[in-house]
């Protein structure tokens, strides 16, 4: 009955190969595109504007700092993904190293992260979709255009587009991951092309004077913006969740994680440089479409329309991957007995966790419909940073307790790299608001009640 009982890596792998199994269809290309699909979205199309208000042109440094933090964590993820090719991401890794109680807490944390990320992105998607529709002369009733309190001075009750897009993505995911990745790959290629179009067109309108002063709010503003735009990087965690559906996870997962992170960091840095070079940062106040605004200021309205379309596709892929990631976390926790069995029930035809996919989709769509974007982003970030911290701790523990395990990919510079990852994550967490910390601890407290009242007794290890 120990709180820190662990599952051996051999047992985890054997369990993933017996009974309820998922179809193995994904290669390096699919996993890389899955990562890019999750990473390039709300962060680049929406949060760049909010980050610029906090850091000014120093937003470039904010993305670099967040990218470095993610790079250290990504190396730790890559070692675990190649070592434990099982659904569940950092939850599964913690179960094998830090024990069931810590694994439960991080799994509960990941549930919060993915649910709020999906809801937050759906709210951003809604803003761009309505902007594009308005250009075509189509308008929703104001009451159904945003969550309550999302727009100052305007009475709104429900974000209908946010609600509907999550249900559409849920339908796609419930019928099969291979079908979903095909759609994802096409949309990723389109949105990458749109981002490149923005860079190529926008670079000619950059005025270096707009980068002065480069740090109007000092380095503190850069750090605060890093904590905010960190939301832009959370997608590669979902790549690790695809372990059981990867054809060769020991080789393909590390590549997918690292390739997607490198590509997206380069895009973020260049886009933020061009964007703040075209527009003086104070003009982003209250703007939900900062990237297309930059092209409108440059007089390139026709390109701005393509940017709106790219943003819609970009955030659709993020929704796809985030919803996918959460259902796989549920799947792993349910298979271990910590959540009810319905979450690991695999559809006989589609070979997907059909019931849990729909439950997750319905909850996320309702949250996206009723809760404004700003309140969701920071909660998502604190959950992600906590997960990254735990996976870095787990690498240190596993290197000491099981040094002879055959590792296809090894984190270089242990223990320095995992320790730096932990310190960087904690530093960014300290930049988040007190209300975010309170909400985070309330969620973990609820998780404690669930664990001791249900999960501990129903755990497979308990029997």
From TrEMBL:
InterPro entries per record: AA/rel_permease1
Record keywords, A-Z: Membrane, Transmembrane, Transmembrane helix, Transport
Main location: membrane
Highest taxon, organism lineage: Bacteria
Membrane topology: Multi-pass membrane protein
Keyword Membrane carried by entry: yes
A cellular component term, taken from the record's GO annotations: membrane
GO MF term set: amino acid transmembrane transporter activity
Chain segments annotated as transmembrane: 26-47, 59-81, 101-125, 157-176, 188-205, 217-236, 257-282, 302-325, 354-373, 379-399, 411-429, 435-454
Intracellular or extracellular location(s): Membrane
PANTHER family, sorted: CATIONIC AMINO ACID TRANSPORTER 4, INNER MEMBRANE TRANSPORTER YGJI-RELATED
Protein name: Amino acid permease
Source organism per UniProt: Tumebacillus avium
């Amino acid at each position: 009955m120990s709180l820190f009982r662990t599952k051996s890596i051999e047992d985890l792998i054997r369990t993933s190969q017996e009974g309820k199994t998922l179809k193995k269809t994904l290669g390096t290309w699919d996993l890389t595109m899955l990562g890019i699909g999750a990473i390039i979205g709300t962060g680049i199309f929406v949060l760049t504007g909010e980050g610029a208000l906090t850091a000014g042109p120093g937003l470039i440094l904010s993305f670099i700092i967040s990218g470095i933090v993610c790079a250290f964590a990504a190396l730790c993820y890559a070692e675990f993904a190649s070592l434990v090719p099982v659904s569940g991401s950092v939850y599964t890794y913690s179960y094998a190293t830090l024990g069931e109680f810590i694994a439960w807490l991080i799994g509960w944390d990941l549930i919060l992260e993915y649910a709020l990320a999906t809801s937050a992105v759906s709210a951003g998607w809604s803003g761009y979709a309505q902007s594009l529709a308005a250009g075509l002369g189509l308008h929703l009733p104001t009451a159904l255009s945003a969550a309550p309190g999302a727009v100052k001075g305007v009475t709104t009750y429900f974000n209908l587009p946010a609600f509907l897009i999550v249900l559409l993505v849920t339908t796609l995911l419930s019928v099969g991951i291979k079908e979903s990745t095909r759609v994802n790959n096409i949309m990723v290629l389109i949105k990458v092309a749109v981002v490149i179009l923005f860079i190529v067109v926008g670079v000619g309108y950059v005025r270096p004077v707009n980068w002065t002063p480069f740090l109007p709010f000092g380095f503190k503003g850069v750090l605060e913006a890093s904590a905010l735009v960190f939301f832009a990087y959370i997608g590669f965690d979902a790549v690790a969740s695809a372990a059981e559906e990867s054809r060769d996870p020991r080789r393909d997962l590390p590549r997918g994680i690292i390739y997607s992170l490198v590509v997206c960091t380069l895009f973020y840095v260049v886009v933020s440089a061009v964007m703040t070079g075209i527009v003086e940062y104070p003009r982003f106040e209250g703007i939900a479409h900062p990237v297309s605004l930059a092209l409108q200021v440059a007089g390139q309205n026709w390109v701005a329309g393509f940017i709106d379309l790219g943003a819609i596709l970009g955030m659709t892929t993020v929704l796809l991957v985030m919803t996918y990631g959460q259902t796989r976390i549920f799947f792993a926790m349910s298979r271990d007995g910590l959540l009810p069995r319905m979450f690991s029930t695999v559809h006989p035809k589609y070979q997907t966790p059909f019931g849990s996919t729909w439950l997750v989709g319905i909850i996320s769509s309702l949250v996206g419909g009723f809760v404004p974007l700003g309140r969701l982003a920071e909660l998502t970030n604190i959950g992600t940073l906590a997960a990254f911290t735990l996976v870095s701790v787990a690498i240190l523990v596993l290197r000491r307790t099981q040094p002879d395990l055959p590792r296809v990919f090894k984190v270089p510079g242990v223990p320095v790299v995992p320790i730096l990852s932990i310190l960087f994550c904690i530093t960014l967490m300290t930049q988040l608001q007190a209300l975010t910390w309170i909400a985070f601890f309330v969620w973990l407290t609820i998780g404690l009640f669930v664990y001791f009242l249900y999960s501990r007794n129903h755990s497979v290890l308990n029997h």
